[in-house]
Amino acid sequence: MVKVTFVAHDGRRFPVEIASGMTAREAALFNDVPGIDGDCGGQCACATCHVHVDPTWIDRVGCLSDGSMEADLLQFAEGTTEESRLACQITLDDRLDGLLLHVPEQQY
Ligand code: FES
């Protein structure tokens, strides 16, 4: 199991656990974490699973690569930063155990 803590914009923390190999989107949706919609089903087509990776974790998660489908899609998300990622594109494994993700105030 991989532990992930989602931090809402108001500071509420939602610690969850999910099997290795699942995505951060699935970790949020399967545990009713508010603020992650994931409308496209994890197909990298909606940007409603936008999260900000905590700066202490960005090296392990990895930044966006320019020109990627994920980077192109995040151009349409609200409040993106250098730590922005789509939760559906973050596959969780033991390397990311303890991951901290910040949920934006809104996805639209
Ligand atoms: S769920 Fe649609 S882009 Fe992640």
From TrEMBL:
Transmembrane segments: none annotated. It comes from the Bacteria. The keyword Repeat does not apply. Residues 2-107 form the 2Fe-2S ferredoxin-type domain. Its cofactor is [2Fe-2S] cluster. Keywords: 2Fe-2S, Iron, Iron-sulfur, Metal-binding. InterPro entries: 2Fe-2S_ferredoxin-like_sf, 2Fe-2S_ferredoxin-type, Adrenodoxin-like, Adrenodoxin_Fe-S_BS, Beta-grasp_dom_sf. CDD domains: fer2. It holds the Pfam family Fer2. Belongs to the adrenodoxin/putidaredoxin family. This is 2Fe-2S iron-sulfur cluster-binding protein. It comes from Novosphingobium aquiterrae. The lineage of its organism: Bacteria, Pseudomonadati, Pseudomonadota, Alphaproteobacteria, Sphingomonadales.
